[in-house]
């Protein structure tokens, strides 16, 4: 057999991004937190570039729950609760029926202030008690009341408590299930032998309880406000002015840049400044185009969202669709109805100029207002939504309901 080596010459094409282009793409798709980290890294490497924190002007932006809740009276609570099926509106509507004294109300507001988008409590009770100058037992007594708010699992302090609250509501919490919830590490690893030794229960019973645990919702707050972003400083602020809706950068979410032209690395510092200015200009242009299209939602809430695609915004601004996708990735805007992800404001047309995201919000509202003793089936929900002009099938309603982490009618029924 004759084996010979052979040399061949061929041409190939590869796309190679320069360092400058890579940096531009990184900056373009960064949210406020990512951009701040990038600037800190650049300042550490470039002596000519320094960062200075920016304090927000008085009244420009405050964390929504911290700035509003402690000062809200009954009228304000009712107004906030009327905005739609958001987690905070749902909780605020329930609090007046669960507390009776001003002291209890203050504690309830502080607990609501600490509620995370997942529905869990985000602060230790000891910190809340110290802040209000009350006993920890008084805070815990109010917490127990707030944990009665539907869906079960809200205001849990950890995953085990969240699942235990749901098991109590479903009346399935027995000693074996309680012990399993106390050792979720063994449940997660599937160490059934160890769990069987601890509980004295056969593995078949443990497998049955495991299926029960999996039927629970570990994040009961996630079914509210599908377009809402986690509580954090937004990248943009949308407010209604005399000339219409105004969209601006949240200057307090980013540090200010200062350049020393005499220091080492001044050209690099100016390049970083140029990248940031380009990013901010593009972000503002894209956000203004999106929110101009969604003015009804800004005024009325997510249920008024209109159909919108990234290609529509790209054509409007003369940009590529991929540029729009990068800009809105992880970017949020503070509105009168909460802080929203820009990406969630894009949604397909479901008929009658109605966006799919708006139908999800209306679906959540219908379920929130239904008779708990006779919950609406998916078919009934589809009929109710179709009366508004949208073309929606039962299967689509079931999909939207699953996306919102809402159980089917037979599991929502309460006697």
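Q: What amino acid sequence fits the structure above?
A:
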């Amino acid at each position: 057999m004759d084996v010979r080596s052979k040399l061949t010459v061929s041409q190939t094409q590869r796309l190679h991004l320069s360092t400058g282009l890579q940096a531009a793409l990184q900056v373009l798709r960064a949210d406020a937190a990512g951009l701040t980290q990038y600037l800190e890294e650049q300042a550490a490497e470039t002596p000519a570039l320094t960062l200075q924190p920016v304090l927000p002007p008085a009244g420009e932006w405050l964390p929504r729950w911290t700035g509003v809740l402690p000062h809200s009276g009954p009228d304000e609570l009712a107004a906030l609760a009327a905005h739609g099926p958001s987690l905070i509106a749902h909780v605020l509507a329930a609090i007046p029926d669960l507390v009776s004294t001003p002291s209890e109300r203050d504690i309830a507001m502080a607990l609501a202030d600490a509620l995370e988008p997942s529905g869990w409590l985000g602060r230790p009770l000891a910190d809340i008690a110290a802040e209000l100058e009350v006993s920890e037992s008084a805070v815990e007594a109010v917490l127990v009341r707030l944990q009665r708010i539907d869906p079960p699992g809200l205001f849990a302090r950890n995953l085990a408590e969240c699942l235990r609250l749901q098991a109590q509501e479903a009346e399935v919490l027995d000693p074996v299930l309680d012990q399993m919830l106390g050792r979720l590490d063994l449940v997660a690893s599937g160490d059934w032998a160890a769990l069987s030794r601890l509980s004295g229960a056969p593995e078949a019973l443990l497998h049955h309880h495991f299926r029960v645990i999996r039927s629970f919702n570990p994040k009961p707050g996630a079914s509210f406000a599908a377009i809402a972003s986690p509580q954090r400083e937004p990248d943009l602020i949308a407010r209604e002015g005399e000339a219409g809706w105004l969209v601006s950068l949240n200057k307090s979410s980013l540090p200010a840049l200062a350049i020393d032209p005499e220091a080492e690395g001044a050209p690099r510092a100016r390049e970083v400044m140029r990248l940031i200015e380009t990013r901010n200009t593009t972000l503002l242009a894209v956000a203004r185009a999106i929110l101009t299209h969604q003015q009804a939602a800004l005024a009325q809430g997510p249920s008024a969202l209109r159909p919108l695609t990234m290609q529509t915004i790209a054509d409007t601004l003369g940009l590529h669709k991929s540029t729009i996708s990068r800009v809105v990735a992880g970017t949020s805007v503070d509105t009168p109805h909460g802080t929203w992800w820009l990406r969630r404001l894009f949604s397909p047309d479901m008929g009658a100029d109605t966006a799919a995201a708006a139908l999800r919000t209306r679906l959540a509202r219908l379920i929130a207002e239904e008779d708990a003793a006779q919950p609406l089936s998916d078919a009934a929900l589809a009929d109710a939504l179709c009366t508004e002009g949208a073309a929606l099938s039962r299967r689509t309603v079931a999909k939207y309901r699953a996306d919102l982490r809402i159980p089917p009618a037979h599991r929502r029924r309460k006697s």
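Q: And what stands out in the fold?
A: Strands lie at 49-52, 236-241, 244-249, 256-259, 332-335, 338-341.
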